[in-house]
Amino acid sequence: MLTTNAAADNGVNVGALLGAREALAAAPEAARFRWRTTCSWVNGVHSRSTVEGFFGLGEERSHRVRSVLDADHPEVFAAEDNGPTPVEYVLVGLGACLTAGIAAVAQHRNIQLRSVSATVEGGMDIQGILGMDSDVRNGFNGIKVTYRIDADATPEEIRALVAQSQKRSAVFDVVTNPTNVTVEVA
Amino acid sequence: MLTTNAAADNGVNVGALLGAREALAAAPEAARFRWRTTCSWVNGVHSRSTVEGFFGLGEERSHRVRSVLDADHPEVFAAEDNGPTPVEYVLVGLGACLTAGIAAVAQHRNIQLRSVSATVEGGMDIQGILGMDSDVRNGFNGIKVTYRIDADATPEEIRALVAQSQKRSAVFDVVTNPTNVTVEVA
Fold it and tell me: What is the pairing mode between strands A142-151 and B181-185?
């Protein structure tokens, strides 16, 4: 007896991604990307970053539109609050990366998503960045991500989606593991 | 003989920050902040995050304006490129944090900044996120930040500013050291 399953459509082109995987297996040097931003100081702790160009698949490329992103500190830090704080940008990257992964994995597993939202919260003791206590780290003491997902799937299938997304997430890796950062003055 | 030095003004209220340090020394529980974003899936790998509320100095607070930040993948990943990629948001946070630190340290050292800009570039072999090679990490294989700084200071003083900024940067810590991330489904 044949069963028919409606094909899930989460807007992710899994076929293209599987094709890319095949193409890159034959030319692995094309898989080396370089992501980039330029950051300009405005005044105080207010900066403006632009995201536009990147390098990938062997050549310099450009986003469809240039993004301009202001960062600042809030008024309780005696600043002007012209945008999110730098650490909030990291939380945005983490939530966006895990959410994109959930959509891609759901598509691959033929699970129709209806809605996905997450709260991403990072705790920080600012005695670190204020230089008050060298035992307190500057960064987050931990991050908690809580998803609410409505999908044509069992609770176990949904938990498995979220787990697989973590396993393939670039930003989850960046936050949970160390990355070497070199800072130079030209 | 008296010498007079013009007071540098980089727009950072160092007095307020030093005052905050004193106040927090007396009430260290007020230093516990919680930064937050909510991320909603739009379609495909496109998500929209909002940054507005945070907890700090003992109570729930709000940014002066709510920020709405779209993230997506570029067209070479068969996506619609409705915004920066999640990993680019991390680079924005890193550049913004180091740049804010440079302004704050310069103010504290009475160094007048004229211009500060940085290129922040992260290399990534996408064989990791595509699941092609388990020896390739999902995140950046390294990040390079290059500053161009014009200031009333010697090259050594400028290099020292940049070094001190790294030492006190929240995002530099997040990227270079591991942070525990818990992901749950509500």
Answer: parallel
Render pLDDT for B48-69 as a digit per residue (tens, 0 to 9). Answer: 999 999 999 999 999 999 999 9
Window 110-149 of B, Cβ < 8 Å to A: 113, 115-132, 137-140, 142-149
What are A164-186's pLDDT values in tens digits?
999 999 999 999 999 999 999 99
Q: Name the residue with higher pLDDT: A7 or B177.
A: B177
Q: Do A183 and B162 touch (CB under 8 A)?
A: yes
Q: pLDDT value at position B1?
A: 44
For CA atoms A86, A176, A27, B143, give the dihedral sign. Answer: positive
Looking at the predicted structure, is the pLDDT value of residue B38 above 90? yes
User: Distance between CA B114 and CA A30 in Å, rounded?
Assistant: 40
Q: State ipTM.
A: 0.96
φ, ψ for residue A22, nearest 5 deg: -65, -45
3-state secondary structure of A65: strand
B-facing residues of A in 23-42 (CB < 8 A) are 24-25, 28, 31-41
Tally Cβ neighbours within 10 Å of residue B62.
11
Which of A32, A99, A111, A134 to substitute to test the interface with B, most B CBs within 10 Å? Answer: A99
Residue among A35, A37, A93, A33 nearest A68 (CA)? A37
On the CB side of B141, CA atoms within 13 Å amount to 14
